[in-house]
């Protein structure tokens, strides 16, 4: 059996590509001499779900082969392997050669391989491409200058927002940057656009993160903002010169006409001379008619000077050609000038992103491919990859059309090394599987052209052995669905001008049918919406709403028709192009009591309980927020109280303006709380109190959440919820220590951590120096609740042995298994240590599976069933609190920007209609597909900007960035080619998305569109609906008054199977969690509930209010602000006033609050070395003298004195003289310490 070195499988939708992959994989491992041949195979795919499917199929096939009586599918596959497969059109030739083994040999070999895989599962290397890239980066993190403990972040958008905010915040500090930002703002307002420049800078930042722009961006890496400012000035001046020169040339042409005595009336309609005049006066519009050919200059037949004009026309056209060329250049310059300001910030954004990642010890996933790409340029690629500790000989790449260009370029050296050599007579191989018609990720670098080029002549490897295989039979769908898609996409091939794209759909979209005959395709249109005479924007919005209502109503009607044929809810999927369309459908179907599963129904922000928490947090931030208060009251009215009608309850609560009165009123409904006390807590504590007060079963009229956590006898939380925020009451005291320990591991810890992170146990996620309760454990796998501790010499003292024993007992009570090793064991025999860890993980898996009930949270989000939402929300709050020390206001800002990103995992086994975007449906199949809103206007989609070549001497740059519009065609032939190519790419991407949508259906496909005909009955251009109308015209007598067309029989053909609900619920815990027994502290945890803690909290409060006070007359305003923001209540006002006045009037502090000086409160100072300090109060006199004051709480400490001295040194290095400095300790009494 001889496999080609490089085989390409062109696999259309439903053609069994995973089956082909698995089959080829099995051939390699079955014929190999050793039982561990899988160690030398790397299989890469796009999603975790695809990884799981491939692993399951391979292991499942081997298991079936090894059985006494394999399944029929397994027997068929074994027969194909043993006997081979002949070509259908030429039985004399092999389509697949026999592997040279008998059935018995396959059975025996399968048993041996299965046993080997079970004991070496980590070496069974099938992963996503991102995971593989991550693995490579971990292998040579040191070479890249990365810390070994870096964390990977997927949230690149938030990183970018943070970077842009930081850049804008620098306005006023950096003179050049400030001028640039101000000028850009003015330019936008002059163009009647929003003055907010952050969006343009964000768009520029996205260029940095998108690998599609990597080649162009390299040209800007050495350019400073000053250089861009110079280029901008140069181009602005060049535009003026070009306009002046063009006007002069137009005047020369007019003078030529005049000198030859030509009457301008001799020109038809005087259009030609008028054209020259418009140029001369600077009114030329590139959209106006131009004159390039002799025949275009029209002369009146009766003109006496016709012969003279005809002689002059060539010269006049030559002058105009020069003018047009100048205008092309001018318009090109102006198009670039629109983008030059945000582009000039490219390096600034890039540097800020780098700085943020370094500070937070994180690495954006978008950096992975670029890091490897840069490293490959600097050293031999095989050397890099060999550090993984494995030598891959065979490669499988699934969904190749989604592999980005850079990812592919990074893999080529590794694959070339394998395919160009032989080991033990065996050469390396590569098998790629994909379908360019399903390439829908161009925005992340995945391009159909890459697959198309490889399927033609292109071969990037030294070994020329290459074979192309077409999988052209559809095993998924019934015949009617296949034939519809064959004809429909064959017709759409005519939409393309690009020969490769036309060929793709004309010659590679038709599929052979399988044995499943029948099926049903339905194309319907919503009724036409009559537009009123009012063409206002408001009228347009109403039309859009009416249209949405018609689409969602038609979708419901389709569901009901499908159910009437015997299908179940779980058989139906609704696919939408946009997320907003899915939300509209989800909202409508929920109202109609249709059970749903979608990312929208599972979104955290849509859960009633989470919405209540957010509303209450908004009220705590600002008790004048009436909307938040009303929403909070509505929740209480519906779920907590039953004494008053809902409306009366809300009205009574809203009438109470004073917070104290509001709290007393709530007490009459058994709701006892102090809003002010909650405000004093950390963010996590505040949310925890809200949950305890309002989401406990006793308060929910018998409909409360089931509580997952319980408190053990030791007061610690025992939880079945495996979140990674597992810190205890004193976590705030330990977090920094844990971070320090991660940065400075012992030699043994470093050795074991490298193994845990790189390859040895990569299927299990371990955390290093992690908080559990009030302990920092060395390593933990939270999923399997396994703790690994490494013991140095001091652990063998009698005292430490007892402490370790107590620690282990507490961790065991929390559900964790603890295993210990000495440092010596790890250093001398890490492989033995890993073996013990693997065994422990396997034992924990059995233990957890047998003891912990699994749950599938209800997707409804209604009160009483949203516990999973609250638990997940609490995780988000805790992570935000610990990482960012976030307050309520900061968290609400974060939530406004990011809430829609959070959703709980979709529960399996529910009999519900699924709603998903087309992109998410890729690779899936469903008995019934409904595709509403099939009327997208492609011309209105946001377009990527274009990179065009430029003359280096003109721009100082080889490439420039311009907006993608039809105006580009007027910038010259080369620019027009770029523009038209981009248009063809966008058309291909849009038709590819449509192909994915229409090929998901197994038995029935429903398309719901809108005719969108003009008043004259014309079909719209650039609209998806035109595709369906034109198809129907080619197939039947299309009539505008007929709204429904179908092909095939609607009767259900597939075997009817009764749905079994496999979802599980978590049993209710009878004992209610006492919130006082579990707390996550952020400050002074050891003093909770003490007089000392009260004094510290009061001191912090005064400190914050004093930041508003510059002189004595500011006190009233500061108190008013504090009441408005919820810092203090009106009742507390006088007590606080007395304290502040005591400070201001203090004999030793009179100079600090005297009038006539400049006062800087909480002013940040950036030192030369980049560190920042922020003194509480600096008073600057006219003599450049400074009085320095800092507020403190608690006991006097030497470190505070040193801190103030550090402030003094920094201020004096700026040319000021600190003449007086003092510390004020604020508590129940005021203490002043002069230094």
Give a nutshell description of this structure.
This protein has 42 helices and 35 strands. With 1235 residues, it is of the alpha/beta class. Helix 1 packs across helix 2, helix 10 runs antiparallel to helix 12 and helix 20 packs across helix 21.
Distance between the termini: 88 Å
Q: Which strand order spans the largest sheet, edge to edge or round the barrel?
A: 15-23-14-24-27-13-28
For the sheet with most strands, the description reads: 7 strands, mixed
Question: What radius of gyration results from the CA coordinates?
Answer: 36 Å
Show unreliable segments: 532-542, 697-725, 850-866, 1061-1090
Helix-and-strand structural type: alpha/beta
Task: Please report the number of helical segments.
Answer: 42
Mean pLDDT: 82
Strand content: 5-15%
- Proportion in helices: 40-55%
Total strand count, please? 35
Oligomer category:
single chain
